[in-house]
Design goal:
heterodimer; A: alpha/beta; TIM Barrel; 3-stranded parallel β-sheet; 37% helix; B: Ubiquitin-like (UB roll); 1 helix; 11% helix
Chain lengths: 257, 72
Amino acid sequence: MKLDILKIANKKFKSRLIVGTGKYKNMQECAKAIKISGAEIVTVAVRRVNISDRSKPLLMDYINPKKIMYLPNTAGCFNSNDALRTLRLAREIGGWKIVKLEVLGDKKNLFPDMIETLKSTEVLTKEGFKVMVYCNDDPLMCKRLENSGASAIMPLAAPIGSGLGIQNKINIKILRYQTKVPLIIDAGIGQASDAVEAMEMGCDAVLINTAIAKAKKPFEMAEAMKYAVLSGRKSYLSGRIVPNLEGSASTTKKGLI
Amino acid sequence: MDKNNKIKIIVNGKLLTVNFKFSLKNLIEQLKTPINKVAIELNKEIVDKKKLNKIFLKNKDKIEIVHFIGGG
């Protein structure tokens, strides 16, 4: 099989697992889990520098942005203006143009505000950003995002950090059918089988944070997710058999005594 | 500016008192901020990091200095 490359905004990646860098016990644990996962893209957030305590460790000292692509996000933004401000600052830190937009609408379930998300996508695209968009799994809104120039469509499988797995499989299948840019499941993955399922449905990648960071053994889970994504992708590309309600013996009857 | 030639600025939500004719470059140096790992906003406008020495702070200026942290 020829090398299976993931292409986002004309950048090429071998790994189809994107991981978040939040919720780890410390930076060392985060860096090690990322290494084990084999991820080439990590999401990062933009926050104030702690001006009174300069001894706090910096993310860039643990995860080298020259080796692993930072994907700045807008975590915690609940309107378009805050999201735009955050990503413009992110670009200023070091020229990041590929960004993850997430505009939240509900504090409890963290579902995205799709009106604000669409508005932000339009502005950012015009400003030259390559926008990977966290969104709900509504095919109509996803199409609108794609038409506004989104570089990747990233529907939730379930609420962020919930670990509930893919809830609305029909919508994900419709999205797979209609989406021309990379389709990446973002949020809701709980265990390796969820990642396998997403990849078997033909998704181009999955983004996982909590399921790894909050597992009892994050390093083991990082490895499990790495293989889950590889396995699901291979399975998808291999052309599964047609499901059949009747049995079909695996052994020939020829020579039966 | 008060009679001691001091001005008050707000950096990342914290009130700081600095000398009159204090530049953004002075501020970054005083805070020992690694300039290549941050972005700076002055009164909600992004600042070109190459021009820090030319930007002098005024009383009540609001400065935000941000960097990347872990996030999902």
